Amino acid sequence: MKTELINTIKEKRGVVGIIGMGYVGLPLALAFSNSNVKVVGFDIEESKTQSINDGISYFKHISSNSIRNVTQKNLFYATTDFSEISRVDAIILCLPTPLNQYREPDLSYVTNTIETILPYLKKGQVLSLESTTYPGTTDEELAPRITKQGFTIGTDFFLIYSPEREDPGNPNFTTSTIPKVVGGSTEDCLEVGVALYECIIEKVIPLSSTKSAELTKLLENIYRSVNIGLVNEMKIIADKMNIDIWEVIDAAATKPFGFTPFYPGPGLGGHCIPIDPFYLTWKAKAYGVTTRFIELSGQINTNMPEWVIGKVSDALNKESKSLMNSKILVLGLSYKKDIDDVRESPSVELMELLKAKGAQIYYSDPYIPVFPKMRKHSFDLKSILITPELLQEIDCTIISTDHEVFDYDLIHAYSKLIVDTRGVYRSITSDKIVRA
Description:
Elements: H1 2-10, E1 15-19, H2 25-34, E2 38-42, H3 46-53, H4 64-71, E3 76-79, E4 90-93, H5 108-117, E5 125-129, H6 137-147, E6 157-161, E7 180-184, H7 187-198, E8 204-207, H8 210-240, H9 245-252, H10 276-284, H11 292-302, H12 304-318, E9 327-331, H13 346-356, E10 360-364, H14 388-393, E11 396-399, H15 408-414, E12 418-420, E13 433-435
Helix pairs in contact: 1-7, 8-10, 8-11, 12-13
């Protein structure tokens, strides 16, 4: 059965079903279909499946043409009907794995989906989990559910873990050019998984187990979290010493070895870096390990929005103004520049803190015209156009996300006060600019 499935995959006679048409699932579906592999995209949101079938993209960094190019060739369509899982050969889960209110892993999206598709699984399929999670999830949560259906993993059903490595808006890397880590529940599972991803990925890295692949993903993002936490702490120290942290980082980056530059900001955003470290700290407790280093960096990064608001309050005080009732404009709602993704965005956290302190809040982000529905946040706001008249009415402008489309010369010319969290004005000395 393994050989037959591998041949079906390599000869591109099979069908790939991808569950979750979000920032990971949609690019992955396009990568497979552009390689002449038929894809069925699954999602519980009919608006997404309808958009795909109509050839309309709902993400800024993915063009509608790229979708139409494959849907019109009958290589890709989307559905909310999960019974169609029975007609695919490979199933790939690209689902959210958030934290609950106690900062513990919430696998409900994954486990609920598995329960939904169990009746439609069949012998000879391969299932891959791409969602970020703690080591042991694939074997502890997915495998038992599959075996209860009467399948033997590694013999008539194949289970793998291969973490996503998408970086929305990064022009230097695509789904196909980013190396892909794969771990299998058995050696035969691994062999099938490697064959699956070699259809679209230039370099596939096989690992000895699903646990190793799961921990690899966590290490990648914890590495970034820890280093960002370090540079955010250095930013505070430099500020107290009246030193420009951006100048220091740029200077340190000239060293050709032993240093990789990381940059401070208003906090961590996206679905990975603010969340992944806590997946490991939670799991490590089961082994009697306290991850002090990881937790410390998480604490520093989590506190960054509070620190920024403190800088805003201090800057307004110097102008004899209170934060309460002041008009504050937040520039950029997405978690990083030039994309339309607001997941865990520090900009939203800044807005919550400003709201709690009684400020009048406005935001401008051309990629997010209306404040979206979010699990933890709700604002009845729309993006406003930046004009000289607007800036002159605003008491303080916070550069939270440094989109390239913003006219920073105009913002500098007409703003009364600017709190710069991204180093946009690092080369400018001005009384109206406060670095945060």
